[in-house]
Amino acid sequence: MPRSDSLSLREARRAAIAAQGFSNTATDSDPVEARHARRLIGRLGLVQIDSVNVLVRSHYLPLFSRLGSYEAALLDRLAYGGKRRALFEYWGHEASLIPVEQQPLFRWRMARAERGEGTYGELARFAAERRPYIDSVLAEVAARGPMGASEVSEAGRGAGGWWGWSDGKRALEFLFWAGLVTTARRRGFERLYDLPERVLPAAILETPTPEEAEAQRALLRIAARAHGVATERDLRDYHRLDVADARQRIAELVEAGELLPVTVEGWDRPAYVTPDLRIPRKAPARALLSPFDSLIWERQRTERLFGARVRLEIYTPAHKREHGYYVLPFLMDERIAARVDLKSDRKAATLLVQAAHTEPHAAADAVALPLAAELRRLAGWLGLERVTVVGAGDLAPALAGALRTGEPEDL
């Protein structure tokens, strides 16, 4: 428990880094086993899924950032390994991999979705207008699943583009929101849908459904432990809770003594911690962070904690990008010290650094060698043979020099 009802900014950063499972003890010589991954994801509460594959799909990165090199297939087995799976897919913080034990905590959201509440407006309208069709798709999944959206009979044609879904895809996405189907496995990155009773462990399906308010309180407890210290906005954003729901549940947790209000140096709003919070004396982790990593996905919180304005520039026209297309912040000695725009050139077996920038507080000479070491580790994990700086940025020359210094013969 904090010594007082106020935290310095440094204490808040240390609490956040430790709560997110970062340490400076993992080495690539230590084998990462399923139990390590399960424990970490249980601590985080969820891992966000994203389709962009210019480096590696984002959901594989948080385990590497915290545990070191591991077999990526391990995560696939935890998520899609039959009825003994440890994770399931659902809308947590966006599309997410979530411990199966938490599935009952999302049934209220599934029930709201089935009533047409809380889903994307277009899906709710589609469900209201085409419920007989959606029921026929559900029956087809029951008869034929697991199956992809492209295999739905009379699915119709998509309009093209990311959101130009066919009617079959809309029906399956509504059913997914409503919890009436779930992801059995992935084919490439395509979801294959099936009935929950054929995918999820029986013990999970038999777990009683908690009351909506209790489920929301449980999700906020998870969010509070995963944050270390967090504002109301931070807490509700973790599982994308509605403002009114989160506000009421947080008040109930404060009244029960399960959350303690604190002030944080420089923050303009109250924050909350759990009574058992321990703030380490140091949090010297070094890690490359996915742009969808739970440490930094709430951009206002990232700016409050680290003084770094992190923005996703994938959809920004190239000539307007400040840091690059797929940018990973570099966490070093309790601060975000740099950002690198990375790409896996798989044909050339090369990790390309397309841009490299330091943060205003960091010096290129101090950052270059530690960052080079992390990039080599990342390349080795991805099965790439070398790291090459091909782009610009104030850090690029020093980083290129650091990569040339002591370059190992084999990664």
Distance between the termini: 43 Å
Biggest β-sheet: count, sense, barrel?
5 strands, mixed
> What is the strand content?
15-25%
The unreliable regions are none
Average pLDDT:
92
Q: Please, how many helices?
A: 15
H/E element sequence: EHHEHHEEHHHHEEHHHHEEEHEEEHEH
The structure class reads alpha+beta
Strand order, largest beta sheet: 9-10-11-12-13
**Helical residue percent band:** 25-40%
How many extended strands?
13
- Tell me the radius of gyration: 22 Å
Shape: globular
Short description:
The protein has 411 residues and is α+β, with helices and mostly antiparallel strands.
Provide an overview of this structure.
By secondary structure, the chain is of the alpha+beta class. The protein is 38% helix and 17% strand. Strands 9-10-11-12-13 form a 5-stranded mixed β-sheet. Strand 5 (182-187) and strand 6 form a beta hairpin. Helix 14 (364-382) packs across helix 15. The radius of gyration is 22 Å and the shape is globular. The model has no long low-confidence stretch (mean pLDDT 92).
